[in-house]
């Protein structure tokens, strides 16, 4: 502690250099804390469960040529053919999956005239009788749809105009719409029509929405039978089945039923996940690289400034050694000096980190920066500072007392 006053006195004589280094540390601290948070969010997104049994699922898209008046009947034939393939457990026609960027959404109300204020928008998973079983979505309360609750919707216009006879919604959306009571058995209104909620699933991720957001789990399942022209065949296979071979057999079966159709994308959900999260993975590597470069630049700045000061203070260090200062005293002096500079930068950096996080929250709906990240960032920079100053400090400690005599 008795060294701090002379150290502060020395630092005040080099205000510009000290301020520049403190500013560099502050910027590094602010970026480090927010980069760690962004990387954490991206990793959580990549590893977040979708609410479906994706390890058993594949997707096959088929489109028609021109107008197909018997699309619904052909879709039923396709499903029977695909279901007959060895290893296939079930197949459903569903309008969208969690691993796509666009989505079909709608706003629900809890009264006929609306109630406003609360976010009531959810994505709509429209599927046939095998939707819930094929996806493997877990119903935690209530039941699956009954056969009489399904509607045939032959085209997109019919799907837009049709009103569902029942709903299955996610637990998150249920709590959003009915925060003070159980949603099961109640109704949500769509176009002034009450739709009973017959089931609650634990989770079902919304397409194109960051999984870290609460609204990413606002989903509703709709009992609509749609043709292949509007949806995709979702194929569930038995454990141990080669899904790639099943997809090839499914394409052959569909083409056999009607060769005058276009076979679109055919992928397993593992492939869909890899593609969907390719950009977040790239961002993780980019943020990590930028943070590492900033840490290296900061370390080099500390080394450069400390080396310059050792060179400038060679005579003073020699005098201190001649007056009885040990190598440990010199080493501690430079380490304490660096600790104080980094501490000033860290305090400024924490404030800056909080401000950047507030901006990200406002512009990109990111969650608040967890407070433990601030001391973690401070600890990393303090450790970095001590390691960076160690070599110049050891050089200073090795200056012999005779240097003071030779310098006179």
Could you walk me through the main structural features you see in this protein, from its secondary elements to its overall organization?
The chain is of the alpha+beta class and 408 residues long. It has two domains: 4-47 and 279-407, no CATH class; 66-259, no CATH class. It is 51% helix and 17% strand. It contains 13 helices and twelve strands. The protein has helices at 4-12, 15-47, 71-83, 131-135, 156-161, 171-177, 243-257, 269-276, 278-312, 314-322, 327-364, 373-397, 402-407, and strands spanning 57-64, 88-94, 105-107, 121-127, 139-142, 151-152, 167-170, 187-190, 193-201, 219-225, 232-237, 261-268. Strands 3, 4, 5, 6, 7, 8, 9 and 10 form an eight-stranded mixed sheet that branches. A four-stranded antiparallel sheet has the order 2-11-1-12. A hairpin with a 2-residue loop joins strand 8 (187-190) and strand 9 (193-201). Helix 11 runs antiparallel to helix 12. The two termini are 30 Å apart.
